[in-house]
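Let us practice reading a record.
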Amino acid sequence: MAVPAKNFPAPDLVPIRRALLSVFDKTGLIDFAKALAAAGVELVSTGGTAKEIAGAGLAVRDVSELTGFPEIMDGRVKTLHPSVHGALLGVRDDSEHAKAMHDHHIQPIDLVVSNLYPFEEVRRSGAGYASIVENIDIGGPAMIRASAKNHAYVAIVTDPADYASVLNALEMNLGSLSLDFRKKLAAKAFARTATYDAAISGWFADTLEIEHPTWRAFGGRLDQVMRYGENPHQGAGFYLSGDKRPGVATARQLQGKQLSYNNINDTDAAFELVGEFDPTRSAAIAIIKHANPCGVAEGATLKAAYAKALACDPVSAYGGIVAMNRILDAEAAEEMVKTFTEVIIAPDATDEAAAIIAAKKNLRLLVTGGLPDPRADGTVAKSVAGGLLVQSRDNAVVDDLELKVVTKRAPTPAEMADLKFAFRVAKHVKSNAIVYVKDGSTVGIGAGQMSRVDSSRIAARKALDAAESAGLAEPLTRGSVVASDAFFPFADGLLSAIEAGATAVIQPGGSMRDEDVIAAADEHGIAMVFTGVRHFRH
């Protein structure tokens, strides 16, 4: 049964006469406190915040004067007291509340300024268990939630970025804050504590290796509001989770206009794919369009790798995303700007390369400082009607798998290298996925089809188109290898790949008709390798 409510109309304007300030992040604190004091607001504070305010020459009351009780237990207990929470939660138009406040000498607090211990930052720093626990704020969230609940009478500020708007509102309303403004501050406050608690509960789940906790929460901070989402009639925003995995969310944008929703989605796909390729072994380029690769290649240099990747599907590459696993150099940059590209993302870029990109004012250049680890654990979520699908990241890497040759003929060393390359790429192609590779470069990609044989045919068709564009006598799928993200349910998909010219195949295996597929491979003298791991990507 719900808690019964007493209905008292909230006042539109609440005069701000007393403010309680207790912040960990002291950005802008002194200027804000000075402005409040100049507006005639009495300042009450705690611990280090009080010392900083007093050090600036401002009159400030320590919260212990209100509570009649000192801070104890290394500051763990300082605001958890009826004199504080009564001041925040009291319904001032309720005679019973007003009497309780009077009888217990509780002075109302009109404005609370509070931000939290840096739990998220301390966790990411790799600190020990005890340090992380000590940075779980208790008094802060309690004050924030109390103030936000009682927004009819109390304003709560949780973000230093809001100090200016609070001062502006106070000036416009002659020392008061409006109900609408207080509601917006309260909404932001509850979102902040929800995100904070999500980070804490997620850490506990990870630490205790609870794969599926009974309650699952995710949180993020708004980074940017976008002009629209996937389509112009959809609204969109980009939120940061705080995860420091190198990628689009943590990158520095050196130049170019704001990233769109689709840019961010595609750039993430591109950089996650190129992270599969060890930069100490060779340079690698991935060109992405609509979250699917249209060309991936390795080479001695980024320029060489880019030329091979572009040749796979030069039509689809137009307006795409280019990702690489090494520092972007001038030689590669000069080639890349010859084709219209939306985003280039790299671990870093030389000054010369950045200057070349800068000549294309709308081309975005992002640098990340590193590559994502394809083997790292992680969690991914997808919304469905009424819920969330949550799973661990696909961190299977072909180099770590036990590959099993199932045909009479084993792959040659060159074929095996290309098979591994193809399977790395297939992991990042929407299912059903078919990827042809030759000499360290994709030469045909079929993605997102309802039938695996259709993906095989589309990939072969694209290879034919690319050959015609390049003036080649035959498609590069002749003498290539092919990867499938899941098993061939029938031999027809394999036969389609053989018809395109593939000489070796890599696939997970596991079909009831594996023997039929193996027999078809043996009949045509091609090699086949089973990985035992599937890479569906929906």
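A brief commentary: The first strand starts at residue 13 and ends at 15.
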